[in-house]
Amino acid sequence: MLVPSSDLQAMIEAAQAAGAGLQRHFGQLAELAIRSKSGPADLVSIADEEAERTCRALLAKAQPAYGFLGEEGGAFGGSDDAQTWIVDPLDGTTNFLFACPLWGVNIALAREGEVVAGVTYLPAVDEMYVAEQGKGAWLNGQRIRVSQRGALIDAVLACGIPFAGKPDHPLFAREMALLSAQVAGIRRTGACAVDMAWVAAGRWDAYWERALNVWDMAPGVILVKEAGGVATSATGSVLDLHGQNVCVSNGAVHAALIETLNAALENPAA
């Protein structure tokens, strides 16, 4: 049984509180005020902003000295500059606004730049994923582990699909052309938080995406690692949380997946 630290407990409570508010808005989508953040494909609502304020307030109450980095509000320094809360209050905003239940609250704690605890809460499907360094990964109080499938031909992968305003559409098309003939399936939920948590839970065998932010991937990285998986950049190098791309897997299919992703990257004619 997981015995969470006080920091992880604060993260769980913040995610639950933010998720409760989001659920209320999710039930009233027709009345939800929506504005455009940077274009029609990148929508944001008052729900995101309220959820981030809730997270920040509860986390600051638990650890007022820690820094804070949020998708909506940006960065706030703390007197303890080695510790930073990283928050995406609503990952999967477009899903949320189109009444799809695959969205969640992401909260991570980074210490000296390394994620040491993570929470991904999916309120609409009642799934709370938590992980803490050295303590494993857990879903609703039950230990989870990555899948054991060892060959791409048996694997189901998840990915991020670049939408309007995002780069690398031709690269994505090359990746699909190379990978679709090698795997059992490729999926896209529309939320990085969901895809990374589902790799940790063994539902997907691997996931990759480009053009991400640190708050999209930070909790998923420790979830996958603590579930026995691997996290690198999309080229197979050491993961940089601020590098804007990620590849996570059960470990067994990682090398083959990276090889194919790099083939697409290096060969525009592929």
From TrEMBL:
Pfam families: Inositol_P
Catalysed reactions, semicolon-separated: a myo-inositol phosphate + H2O = myo-inositol + phosphate
Record family assignment: Belongs to the inositol monophosphatase superfamily.
Residues annotated to bind Mg(2+) 2: L90
A biological process term (GO) from this entry: inositol metabolic process
Residues involved in Mg(2+) 1 binding: E71, D88, D91, D216
Keywords assigned by UniProt, alphabetized: Hydrolase, Magnesium, Metal-binding, Transcription, Transcription antitermination, Transcription regulation
A molecular-function term among this protein's GO annotations: metal ion binding
UniProt keyword annotation of Transcription regulation present: yes
Enzyme Commission code: 3.1.3.25
Cofactors: Mg(2+)
Origin superkingdom: Bacteria
Name of the protein in question: Inositol-1-monophosphatase
Enzyme class: hydrolase
InterPro entries: IMPase, Inositol_monophosphatase-like, Inositol_monophosphatase_SuhB
